[in-house]
Amino acid sequence: MSPALHETQPEDFQPLEKLRAVQDRKLEALGRRLAASPDWQAHLSRAGVEARDLRDRASLAAMPTLEKADLRARYPFPMLTVPGESVARFCATSGTTGLPVLFGFTRHDWEVTLVQQMARIYRAVGVAPGDRVYQGYGYGLWIGGSAMDVALNAYGAVNFPVGPGRAELMLQWLVDHAYTVTTMSPLWLMTLITQARKAGFDPRTQWRLRIGLFGGQSVSATFREEIEAQMPPGFRAYNIYGATESGGPNLSVSCPHSHAHDQMHLINEDSVLTEILDPRTLEPVAPGEIGEVVFTTLDKQASPLLRWRTHDLVRLAARPYDCACGRRAYPLISRLVGRSDDMLKVRGVMVFPTQVEDVIAGVQGLAKEAWQIYIDGDGHSLDQMEIAVERLAAAAASADDLVAEVHARIKARLGLNCTVTCHPDGTLPRYEAKATRVIRRTPRS
């Protein structure tokens, strides 16, 4: 009889040498599978390689990377490597920049591989069978909520699959249902905390949450600490990172030891191999440097991906294989620091929205979940940007004082003078999932 999913597995703490041997074996098997796919043969031949050239980690660097444009060119079912009747379900990207891209899952992908990946994440943060989980990720073709549902069920947790929204009801249910775990966007939880206080609830004493798995939106350590300070004692807001393309919210998670350092383990490296590469040269970055997440799915049967460029930027830890938790085969990365296609260049200075969030999160009297950056033009070379913030109704500081403080902190952090505007409480948008932080304004005619 196999061990229960909630019980620690030997692979959770396997030696790095064993993990790399597993990766080599699975890469060779992946090459054999891709060799049978006309789509993959065509993609690889343009780079002058064949699928069977993929034999191990050393040969991986010779393989071409893959991007969304490559998949959209093969619409509607790109790089599908199993017959259509073998696909149990599809998930899709958001489609914010064009048609959504569909990814297939066999029953094994969905009920075995994904479940095992998510169980390792749950074990890392201390989720237990019987925990009551407020599942707040979205549904539909997006993978977040559905992936959590199937994994929580197999793990033995008690799932309340509400999804995002219904704030007034959730304020009451958080008290009455006594949820102990939640999975959602951190922005949505901050919105719920704010609404709870306005409605007369006290999250610190009336809620029972002890664990949060927060993804879909990277937030600063300051923002995360602000959430934790308003929650029941001992509550931890763990970062989680994944993608529809990788097969779920399965790439990384912080553990109790790495959490304090704002870092995450690449927790499923034996089923999704991750490279952290310089986005310009595509060479591996050194420990302590920022690079782009590029991953290869090793176990996925339908819609596998080889060297998928996420354009998500993280910092490889200075000591990536030295976490006190003992998971030394699973390297540490920072939370997402931005996207290579999200970066703004303002008067020659590179600016990421997360840097602005760091500033806003540290200013008392501002709504931490409500802010935006306005720019004019295409964002490649800017002369000016405007930062819009929101003053809480109970703030002690005036709007003018808050504008001055944000302006001074941005100047100190980035060396830039920018326009800061302060709006009344409730003016700026709230987001249940991923936030739109950079707004490109159309010039007036």
Describe what this molecule looks like in 3D.
With 445 residues, the protein is an alpha/beta fold. The protein folds into two domains: 1-339, 3-Layer(aba) Sandwich (Rossmann fold), CATH 3.40.50; 344-441, 2-Layer Sandwich (GMP Synthetase, Chain A, domain 3), CATH 3.30.300. It contains twelve helices and 20 strands. Strands 4-3-5-6-7-8-9-13 form an eight-stranded mixed beta sheet, sandwiched between helices. A four-stranded antiparallel beta sheet has the order 10-11-12-14, with no helix packed on it.
Rg from C-alpha positions? Answer: 22 Å
The strand order across the widest sheet is 4-3-5-6-7-8-9-13
Unreliable spans: none
Shape: globular
* Helicity range: 25-40%
The number of distinct β-strands equals 20
CATH level-four homologous superfamily name of the largest domain: ANL, N-terminal domain
CATH structural class of the largest domain: Alpha Beta
How much of the polypeptide forms β-strand, as a percent range?
15-25%
Give the helix tally.
Answer: 12
Mean of pLDDT: 92
Can you tell me the CATH topology of the largest domain?
Rossmann fold
Report the CATH architecture of the largest domain: 3-Layer(aba) Sandwich
What is the SS-derived class?
A: alpha/beta
Oligomer: single chain
> What number of structural domains do the residues give?
2
What is the distance, rounded to the nearest whole angstrom, between the alpha carbons of the first and last residues? 71 Å
User: Biggest sheet: strands, sense, closure?
Assistant: 8 strands, mixed
